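Give me the fold.
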Amino acid sequence: MKAKLYELMNWAEIEGIVYSEEDKPGTILGTKTVGSSTLYQTFYPKAKKITLILEDKGKRVAMDMADEEGFFVATAAGKKVGAYSYEIVTKEGEKVVRKDPYAFSATVDQAEIDRLYEGTNYGVYKVFGSHEIEVNHIKGVQFTVWAPGAMRLSVIGDFNNWDGRITPMNRVGNSEVFTLFVPGLDATCGYQYELKAKDGRISVFNDPYADREVTKERTVSKIYVEKEFSWNDKKWIADRKVNENDFKVFAWEESKEKNAVVLAKQLKEQGFNHVSLPAFYLSSNFYQMVDYFKDEKEVKTFVNEMHKAGIGVLFNWNVAFCHGLYKKQVSNFFISNVIYWIEEFHMDGLIFSELASLLYLDYGKAEGQWIPNIYGGNENLEGIEFVKHTNSILTNRNQGLILLADIDAIWPKVTAALEDGGLGFHYRYDTAFTRDLLGYLKTDPYHRSAIHEKITSRMGYAYNEKFMMAFPAKAVHDLWDEIPGDEKDKFNTIKAAFAYLSFLPGKMLSGFNVPSEFEKGYSALVKKCHELNSKTDILAKEDYNDSNFSWVNCFQQKECTVSFLRKDSREEGSLLIVANFANDEKEEFMIGVPYEGKYELIFDTMEESFGGNKKITKEAIFTDENGWDGYAQKINVSLSPLSVSVYRYIPFTEEEIYTIAEKKAAKIREEIMAEAKAKVELLKKIRGMK
């Protein structure tokens, strides 16, 4: 090595590079001015010879080996640094030419890092991860990642033989953020990060902001490439709003109908206005911290087609693996992930799946596996704050976004507003009722009387929250096979269940499956249920008004029947719903009613158009003054097996009241005359005896 070069060497710095312990390699490698010349320094393990190529000058300079591990140096006249590259010959004779990553000054704005540490960098995915950019007219990829505990961090891949010594990244300031621009890379390169801790241990991990790719050798991160997509939903997004009176969600199962255009048409015809994607559809791998930020064209296509048809899209976001939330950088990561799916994929709402695991420290854990919070309780204070923070940001950033809580635990005020101490969700899954009803439907009708409370108990708490009776596809996937009876019985049971849910207070998410031969009738029934809900205010607008509902009779266990009212404040138009979950017909079945008048059958799950055998007539049933079920009036109805019927209350007209009064008067007169006649006859008889 030339003496002059030897004097320019900072051997402590070179040692940091050679031993792969330097966290700011850009201050050593690359170029620096020395007098009227420029010093070039590079490190490539196993290099036998390296030649500096001064591209602007068309010159080649043989570099001196400063350290036999592969540290090379050279000087060139002039302070101005033009484009250059290195020609490397390894000890095995392989020759490669590479541009110097440390010749480029790409970095991360300190403001971005500050917001990350504050937990408010909601668009962090646009900066962190890997992104194709251009620096000084040279295309390449900038890698940026937060790596707490790293003494040194490197990006590794095929482009550097997966050797963490070759491309160490630069720490940004005194933060735990590392970044590096690697020129010449494109989206075909897989990569990972190699972290060297202060104790010398080396670990490799995938980029949490990147999609993943499984190769023969390993699972690697894929370089993010922003793909062009032609959205057609600008007006949809601009006009989007939460309509709590008309919210009908279909739980889509991918295996049923994969064509988005066909599915959108089917949902529109049936009256659905939202569809929820199954949890696996986005296929984020929460265990390996990869695939959080996938760029799936098929997802965008699906959402776009739904929006064109007027259907909103909800997605399941599993929070069970949101750990380390006490660090704002971690909570920021998860919040930004939700924002990514909503804003980049135009989602209309999300379902926080497995929310209880985030709110409770001891959820699913045995004694000794969890530590109480600072107040000695089992509430996860960081998890609660994370949920509130997320919902606040989502609501403020995205007009008309719907937030649903899938929580299988007792937790108060889930759907209360944030300013009222709630969690800020629009709806909460009623998972307890889901299990109860599914269990009831799977029970033989002969034995259902023993578990009658499973279909009635929810009304004891139905108004504590804005509940949604959620029956996701996975919960009902095998329901058909588990329902007792023949194919017709199964079909009638499914229809009765859907109708019963439709007319109970609360919204519903359902994806009940029926065989193809029953789809026409089932679709017609779903459409009719949705029409009744949309066009009947006491159903759509009064779901969470406790004065709108009252049981008529919920104690007929042996009969397997229930009856209830959805009441109008004016009485007229109130609906009487009667469900018969027994597999037998009930003729002249007596039901008590509060209002004197007529009850017109407007819906029955056994109608011919729904695949049944019943014809709906306009003939109304008149009330009878001989009361029943604690009411002064009653009606007699005919109930088909495994069915739900809906009757609309119609007050008597003045003419009908007059006619009824005349009939009553005539009847009274007849009774008085008969009584008088009987008395006269009795008197004659007595006198004759005398």
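Residues 232-429 form a domain with the TIM Barrel fold (CATH 3.20.20.80).
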